Amino acid sequence: MAERIVVTAIGIISALGTGKDAHLGKLRSSQSGVGRVAYLRSKHADDFVLGEVKMSNDELAKKLGLPTGDNGYTRTTLLLLAAMDDLLQNTDIALLRNEPFAFINANTVGGMSKMEDIYMDVITSGTDENNNKYINTLDCAESTENVASHYGLKPLMATISTACSSSSNSLLLGARMIKQGLVKRAVCGGGDALSRFTLNGFYSLKNVDKNPCKPFDQNRNGLNLGEAAGFCLLESESSAKARGAKIIAVLSGYANTNDAYHPTAPSPTGEGAARTMQQALAMAGLQPTDIGYINAHGTATQNNDLSEGLAIQTLFGKTPPYFSSTKPFTGHTLAAAGIIEAIFSMWAMEEQIVLPNLNFETRMDELEISPVATIPEHVPIQHVLSNSFGFGGSNVSLVFSKA
Amino acid sequence: MKQLLYISAACSISPQHTYDAENFLRPVVTSDSSKLYSLDADYSKYISPVAIRRMSRILKQGITAGMKCLEDAGVKTPDAIIIGTARGSVTDMENFLKDMINMQEEALTPTGFIQSTYNSVNGWLAMLTKCTGYNQTFVHRGFSLELCLLDVQLLLAEATETKHILAGGFDELTEEYFTIRNKIGHYKDHPLDSFSLLSHYHTPGSIAGEGAHFFTLSNENKNAACAIYSVKMLQTPGSEELQSSIQGLLSENGLTNEDIDILVCGMNGDSRNHFLIDPLIAGCSGNTTIVTFKQLSGEYDTASGFGLWLTNYLFTHRQVPAELIYKQGASDKIKNILICNVTIANCVAVILVKSARP
């Protein structure tokens, strides 16, 4: 049997704050980070509630010890650096310098949050020197290379972009690389900054709720966008034990499948989502009844919640484990959603708590199950399941188990 | 990691006659604008007329190259689809972004937004082939395609039975993308005949290109002409690191310099990589014929796809077209080909491909 892959460090920044304590405090007290924005310069900014990180680019730069102003770092990169910085609070960076490791990042629109402000200048004869500092930031790998070089690291680098499942794919790729002996450790995750591009994209798809989103509710009306970044350090169980590292969770199962149904909509029966969860459980050697908590993708769009709700009902029956979407806390953070929700799932298991599905009122007509709306304490959770589904039919499920 | 990837089929849509591979180099397509755009294929064979009308060129090309590649391999539904693209559908991104700016965030249609999602070709190919298996998209600049090959190695190493995996890379050239890359010195600042690119090796920059290249890869030798043995990615190596990595890769495979019949060299005519290319060429054995391709493909992030397609073409046709020879070597066999791609950022990918015929 292949060696178990474990998580030994976590770094995170979202609308709830930076790091574990800030997040757990808000999650336990049902305080959402979603609200009016201070930094996104959109014409629609006052019409929507969004999960914005409550720090300006300059504040992020200061915290990271970088020059403020036009420093060449996009907000995407700043968020990723902040998450990496958080991870390194509890991890000796020498670990990443002395042995082969992979750095697997994910995002959906690269440095769009900056490029959308300067695009017309950079595609014409514009020669603004400050703009030119960002000219090559439109691709997704720019932030990956920037984060690695900021810390002077020379890892095997990869950048993934599979829409809203992107950073879940980072985790499973890192696990697979370690299992095949390609690297000893992997830092896996991803992030996205809010941009007008994505806000208007989802708005033009009529997928955005102007009010706080209501996942799995009969009266749900779309998603709230958010921004975040997160990373996990993965390694083999023996490697973690050999260096006496605290094991936060075991990544016991994962699956990546595709709906093969529609460019943006999931299969309405939830067949693809059910297959993905089933495969992840099978890899972990678990039955549905073993799962203590499901952190659902739960975007609060009509399509996702119907499909995912039916899939949970199909696989887990009419009395499923506690399940919730934590997107009302953070907004839908796109490429970051997979990693930050994986982190929330691990913390739920570590703290033996279930995270509430905020804003839930009315069960969906099509379902016989409801998400957990209040916080039951002291729930014995041995295994958790975290879902991420994206455009292009991309489905990923992750299973974490107690060490 | 030791895992052979048999190439069951390869398909290319590029600035050259590669989709209709029987006409390859007849004639050589050239450009004097520093831009090589792909030749159109018959997209209606695999994509419905309704979908075609909404799609950007690169989506049509990616989907068509992928579908043709599976058809040529006799595979209806692959076990996995893994694609690399540095920038996805650039046209769609540009259209949505400029509409958003010009229309001041009002009355936008979502087509460009949806299609600019980096995994949209993945999604379409999954739909058209009913492939519900593993689906992945790598977007890591000049290593986007190489990371796909690495992932295929992982998948096949995990497999306990025969698997057929569709892997490929695509990238698109647009006027705006050209402007941006030109500002950061990716392209030559003087006009030239694209086919003479490599003789302009004393000036910085290359010429722009685009293309879509797909490969049906398997752990089973089903009439494959060749198989990928090793893939190595080197981030901005020094010349010595490059040389020692190549020697390491060869010795891991029980080979020496003399065993390399052909070097498919991804030199791009940029004076700033002399320090890598010159020792690479000088280090070749007298046996090795050196073949180049960026004068045909142009330079872009997944241009190594053209090199891999060309490698499969050489194994399939068992002769080297004279137009491509940079330096003739003594070997008259085609058993071992080393691909060495140098990107505009001086990253280097080394891929060893060996004959799969007894």
Question: Can you give me a brief rundown of this structure?
Answer:
The complex is a heterodimer of chains A (403) and B (358). By secondary structure, chain A is α/β, with parallel strands linked by helices. Chain A has helices at residues 19-28, 57-63, 75-89, 94-98, 112-122, 129-132, 141-150, 166-179, 196-204, 237-242, 271-284, 302-316, 327-330, 337-351, and strands at 5-14, 17-18, 101-106, 156-160, 185-192, 228-236, 249-258, 293-295, 322-324, 383-390, 394-401.
- Under CATH, the homologous superfamily of the largest domain in chain A reads Thiolase/Chalcone synthase
Oligomer state of the chains in this structure: heterodimer
Q: Note the overall shape of chain B.
A: globular
Number of E-state strands of chain B: 11
Give the class of chain B from helix and strand content and strand pairing: alpha/beta
Let me know the number of strands of chain A: 11
Query: What is the CATH topology classification name of the largest domain in chain B?
Result: Peroxisomal Thiolase, Chain A, domain 1
The H-and-E topology of chain B, N to C, reads as EHHEHHHEHEHEEHEHEHHEEE
Please tell me the overall pLDDT of chain B.
Answer: 97
Q: How many individual domains of chain A?
A: 2
From N to C, what is the helix and strand string of chain A?
EEHHHHEHHHEHEHEHEHEHEHHEE
**CATH classification, class level of the largest domain in chain A:** Alpha Beta
Q: How many strands, what sense, and barrel or not for the largest sheet of chain B?
A: 11 strands, mixed
| Distance from first to last alpha carbon of chain A | 17 Å
Overall description:
The complex is a heterodimer of chains A (403) and B (358). Chain A is an alpha/beta fold. Chain A has helices at 19-28, 57-63, 75-89, 94-98, 112-122, 129-132, 141-150, 166-179, 196-204, 237-242, 271-284, 302-316, 327-330, 337-351, and strands at residues 5-14, 17-18, 101-106, 156-160, 185-192, 228-236, 249-258, 293-295, 322-324, 383-390, 394-401. Chain A has 2 domains: 5-242, Peroxisomal Thiolase, Chain A, domain 1 (3-Layer(aba) Sandwich), CATH 3.40.47.10; 253-401, Thiolase/Chalcone synthase (Peroxisomal Thiolase, Chain A, domain 1, 3-Layer(aba) Sandwich), CATH 3.40.47. In chain A, a hairpin with a 3-residue loop joins strand 10 (383-390) and strand 11. The model of chain A has no long low-confidence stretch (mean pLDDT 96). With 358 residues, chain B is an alpha/beta fold. Chain B has 2 domains: 5-218, Thiolase/Chalcone synthase (Peroxisomal Thiolase, Chain A, domain 1), CATH 3.40.47.10; 226-355, 3-Layer(aba) Sandwich (Peroxisomal Thiolase, Chain A, domain 1), CATH 3.40.47. Chain B has an 11-stranded mixed beta sheet, with helices on both faces. In chain B, strand 10 and strand 11 form a beta hairpin. In chain B, helix 2 (57-73) packs across helix 5. Chain B is globular. The two termini of chain B are 23 Å apart. The model of chain B has no long low-confidence stretch (mean pLDDT 97). Chains A and B meet through helix 5, helix 7, strand 4, helix 8 and helix 9 of A and helix 3, helix 4, helix 5, strand 3 and helix 6 of B.
